[in-house]
Amino acid sequence: MASSVTTAERMELPARVRPVDGFLLVSLVLVVATCVRAIWFTPVDAMLGAAQKIFYVHVPAAIAGLYIACGLLAVASIGYLWIKDERLDRLAEASAEVGLLFMGVVLATGPIWARTSWGTWWVWEARITSTLFLWLLVLGYLVLRGAVESAESRARLSAVMGSLAALLVPFIHLTVRLFRGMHPGPVVLKPEKPSLPPVMLTPFLLALLAFLMLFFALLRMRFRWAGLRNAQAELEAV
Q1: Is residue 85 within 8 Å of 4, Cβ to Cβ?
Q2: Is residue 4 part of a domain?
Q3: Is 10 a member of any domain?
Q4: 86-141 pLDDT tens trace
Q5: How far apart, in whole angstroms, are the C-alpha atoms of residue 193 and residue 210?
Q6: 10/5 Cα distance (integer angstroms)
Q7: Which structural domain, as residue segments, surrounds residue 154?
Q8: What's the domain count of the chain?
Q9: Crossing angle of helices 86-118 and 70-83, rounded to 10°
C-alpha cells in the first residue's frame, strides 16, 4: 500500500491537529442558533404540532449522514481500490465515523417524532428499517477496521465493504415511493420543488447549512487525526 505520509508531513501533523479549531466552534454555534430559531421562531405545523420542529434536526442530519457521508465513503473506497492511496482510505474511515454519528442522530430523533405523530416509538417499515440496517453496516465497517491488523488488508477489505454499504443509500431514498408505509415522502430532496412554505424552507436551509458545516468540521478533524495516528505508527515501526 502506497503511503502518502512523508518525513516532512510527519513533523507537521502534530502541529496541524488540534483538539478544537475555529471552524468546529463556528459550526457548533450555528447549529445551536438554528435549533433555537426552529424551536422559538418558526411556526407550529397545523397537523403535526410542535413535534414537527424535530424536522429541522432530523432531515439535515439524514442528508449529512446518509447522502454526504456514505457518498464520500463510496467514492473514497472505490478510489482506494483503484489507486491504493492511503489518504483515500483515511477519508473513507473518517466519513464512516462521522456519518455513523449523524445517522445516530437520525435514528434517535426519528422515534421521538414518530411517538407524537404515529403514537408509537418504532415502526418496522422500509425506510426506517433500511436506515437502521445501514447504520449497522457502517458500524460493522468500523469494527472490521479494528479487527484486521495488516494495514494493507484492512484498507482493501474495508474499501470493499464501504463500497457495498453505500449502495443501500439510493434504495433508502426510494423506499417511500416503492413501498407503502407510514413514513412521509420527501419534501425537499425530490424532482419537484420543495413542498415547504418559505417560512419553513428558510430555517430548514439554514439548519442544513449549519449541519453540513458541522459535518465537514468533524470530518476534517477526524481525517487529520487519522493521518497523525498513521504517521506515529510508521515511526514506531522503524
Answers
A1: yes
A2: no
A3: no
A4: 999 999 999 999 999 999 999 999 888 777 777 777 778 878 888 999 999 999 99
A5: 22
A6: 6
A7: 20-237
A8: 1
A9: 160
Segment 41-86, tens digit of pLDDT? 887 766 666 667 888 999 999 999 999 999 999 999 999 999 999 9
Residue 204 within any structural domain of the chain: yes
In a domain, 5, yes or no: no
Report whether 82 contacts 155 (CB < 8 A). no
Q: Which one, of 68, 60, 57, 52, lies nearest residue 197 by Cα?
A: 52
Beta bridge pairs of residue 166 = none
Grid cell listed for 203: 430555517
Whether the Cβ atoms of residue 118 and residue 110 lie closer than 8 Å to each other = no
Query: What pLDDT does 182 receive?
Result: 58
d(CA 236, CA 139): 28
Ranges of H-type helices in 51-85? 55-62, 70-83
Q: How far from chain centre, in Å, is Cα 56?
A: 16
